[in-house]
Input
Amino acid sequence: MLAEQTVLLSVRQLGKTFPGQVALAGVDLEVRAGEVHALVGQNGSGKSTLIKVLAGYHQPDPGSEVDLPVGDAIGFVHQDLALVDALNAVDNLALARGYAIRRGRIDARREQERTRTLMARLGREVDLAVPVGDLPPVERALVAMARALDGMRESSVLVLDEPTAALPAPEVGRLFAAIEQVKSYGGGVLYVSHRLDEVFRIADRVTVLRDGRRVATVDASELDHDGLIELMLGHSLQRRAHAPAQRRSGAPALEVVSLRGGRLEGFTASVRAGEIVGVAGLVGSGREDLAEALVGATPGTAGLVRVDGRELRKRTPRAAIDAGLALLPADRARLGAVLEHSIAENVTLPRLRSLVRALRIVRRRERRDVLGWIDKVGLVPREPDRVLGTLSGGNQQKALLARWLRATPRVLVLDEPTQGVDVGAKEAIHGLLHDAVSEGLAVLVCSAETEDLADLCDRVLVMRAGRVAVELSGAALSDERIVRETLAPVQDNGSGGSAHE
Output
């Protein structure tokens, strides 16, 4: 079709240089009408910089050519959505463009009709009386999409930056249906995602960035998963075999008995030293509440938690750390890191005693210590004084992992450890965890990423209705089996079951 050949957005020889860093160099990209064009690459490859140039946040280097759709024909949905949670969908849309006024007052009926029309365009209704903070994740994402499309022509460009990062798997299809609606109206979509399975489901073409340069633009139908990874990394992905089950021996490093609180209804499990145990489950299964409940970050929990056989009687994060139980939370920006502080300050935060002399931190000693951890986890750049918030998501996560490995806990709990990181950072994080458990660390991983759990873990516990429904290990442990068990009816969840090799 002719519409499919129309170029809506064009970038030629795009460059962007920061002091001491070339973020983009000679990048070409175009988005056509009626297509989803995926933009992929490792963290630090230049994707975020390119989007910020399109949004006008950064000015490109001289010689760059950026031809954007005319007028208000380009909209952006960023990973954090940037919605005002206390306001409803109507107000969130109106804040972006201004309210319709009638006789000196806000025309509430017109605003509601406009919001309903935009949501219908995306194939979904939302409760206009409910604050968006109380809406399900997929409806929040669609409100952000509607806001981006508000006032735009049908033949416009929608830029989606990690739109499914906070969505459970069953909701992703609903978002994709809304994207197909945008395509059907003759619009174009620039889709940025680390989730390569989604790229193959939704994208027509794929552009790969590496180190600020475009290495390929390919029809999605001509790529496979491993081929795309190789383009992103510049080499093939090294696959690790499962650690042998016989390495687990001795008493459990972590024991949990009948843990209750939030959506937990009696979670019971154990993790031995030298073992990685995964926890899977749909949203509402209790999986998303488990990590914070274990370390006492969630008030009102009940049940027994033991570390190396000693009961954790005082249920606070400080008491958990002192007992050797550490958490790397899912919400890295809000709960896991101090983004305004340096890499060094973030890495050393839990354990400063070895760096202190005469009640002051010895900065030379701190720098030497942190450089060692930067090298160990492969963090880029190798600059302890760099502000953590300026790093890519993958490098922020490496810094936080270095923090807790440096603190030498007996048990490390990780909640969504590879959320928002690219395949290269994911491979590095998996390698660091394998190395740590080989030295005796016990690791519990809570994640919605079933493929990650299958690749990383020795055992996977599948939760339903707040309890462990089934345990998978050996030949029974696969991505497909984890998905099947998470989707099984809740009534199948009795006292729990197991599936071993």
Notes: Residues 240-247 have pLDDT under 50 and may be disordered. The first helix runs from residue 2 to 5. Residues 114 and 255 are 54 Å apart (CA to CA).
